[in-house]
Design a protein that fits this description.
7-stranded mixed sheet, two-stranded antiparallel sheet, binds phenylalanine
Length: about 350
């Protein structure tokens, strides 16, 4: 009978030990004071561990060994938890001693912004997508054929000198593309008319870096090939584009020009968006700014890709993203685009 009572009490004590253990495990202490409170509560001379150990005297001799192990393990648990709390609180209390005010609000997380050229390229592409143009891309390291030959610039063609080309030293047949017209070649190589693509990308020319020139910049190329495509389609498409980009008041004019891969060729000017046509530095006091080269795809280019030039015609255009961005956001120095100056980049926060 007496034994049964002891057993029952032991059951109680074991339950109590488990309860204390989970209490200790959940005990949070981030300051030295709280860690000390833990020590006093569990490990102090009048602490809970001591009082549980005191139960040993009530344990019948034949169970002392087993019960002793449980108590030892309980004590070790409390000590280990105490050490862990001390370890966790130490750096925090060191910071407190160093004069850090933990009640201060955190520094706001800096959210990045899109680069202005990405913003404008996105706008340009989305306008042409609405007209049914699909995005096409090509490699920045190109071969001579796609950049020049296929675009009707044979090896000795003087127009090659207009674009100061970076050649790859190990293999002079490779170069950094000088224009996105190389993507026209890549598209015609793999697709059959009707073709309607827009090709955004980076291009390279060996120019001295200044406010007005850079050794790399960005273009958006357009190509449309189908039956009965006319110069009027070209004009209307580009007129739609600038109206969407700059608003309904923008004026356009086409000037005859020359590109080996288009015939006839034209450059398009728009009324200066900086001075509204009154005359300023950007438009060199003419009121007009050139934004792109364009023309009807040269029959030879079509034939290079087995496209029947008696059945199909097409137009192409290429424009600089930097120039459009300059007119849209009044950026007056090309170098700003690649200097990573936060004072410049932060001005585009909120733009889409
Ligand atoms: N590739 C020409 C340039 O970089 C632009 C252009 C593209 C002209 C397509 C006509 C047709 O200057």
């Amino acid at each position: 009978m007496a034994k049964a009572v002891y057993l029952w009490e032991m059951e109680q004590i074991l339950q109590q030990i488990e309860a204390y253990k989970s209490e200790m495990a959940a005990f949070e202490a981030t300051t030295p004071d709280a860690v000390e409170a833990f020590r006093i509560k569990y490990l102090g001379t009048k602490g809970l561990v001591k009082s549980v150990l005191g139960e040993m005297k009530n344990v019948p001799p034949d169970q002392r060994k087993e019960f002793g192990q449980v108590l030892n393990e309980f004590k070790a648990f409390a000590e280990a938890r105490y050490e862990a709390l001390q370890g966790a609180a130490a750096p925090i209390s060191a910071a407190a001693n160093a004069g850090i005010d933990w009640s201060l609000p955190a520094d706001p997380t800096e959210v990045g912004t899109r680069h202005p050229l990405s913003i404008v390229r996105g706008q340009m592409v989305s306008i042409f997508r609405r007209l049914g143009f699909a995005v096409a891309e090509g490699p920045e390291i190109e071969d001579d054929w796609h950049n020049f030959g296929a675009m009707n610039l044979p090896e000795d063609h003087p127009a090659r000198d207009m674009q100061d080309t970076f050649y790859i030293q190990q293999n002079p047949d490779w170069l950094l593309r000088t224009h996105t017209s190389s993507v026209q070649a890549r598209v015609m190589e793999t697709q059959k008319p009707p073709i309607r693509v827009i090709c955004p990308g980076r291009v390279y020319r060996n120019e001295t870096i200044s406010a007005r020139a850079h050794c790399f910049f960005h273009q958006v190329e357009g190509l449309y090939i189908d039956e009965n495509v006319s110069f009027a389609d070209l004009k209307q498409t580009l007129y739609f584009f600038v109206q969407e980009m700059f608003g309904k008041d923008v004026k356009v004019r086409f000037r005859p020009s020359y590109f080996p891969f288009t015939e006839p060729s034209a450059e398009m000017d728009i009324s200066c968006q900086i001075c509204s046509g009154k005359g300023c530095n950007i438009c060199k006091h003419t009121g007009w700014v050139e934004i792109l080269g364009s023309g009807m795809v040269h029959p030879k280019v079509l034939e290079n890709f087995g496209i029947d030039s008696t059945k199909y015609t097409g137009f192409a255009f290429g424009m600089g993203v930097e120039r459009i961005t300059q007119l849209k956001y009044q950026v007056n120095d090309l170098r700003l685009y690649s200097q990573n100056d936060m004072r410049f980049l932060k001005q585009f926060t909120g733009a889409l």
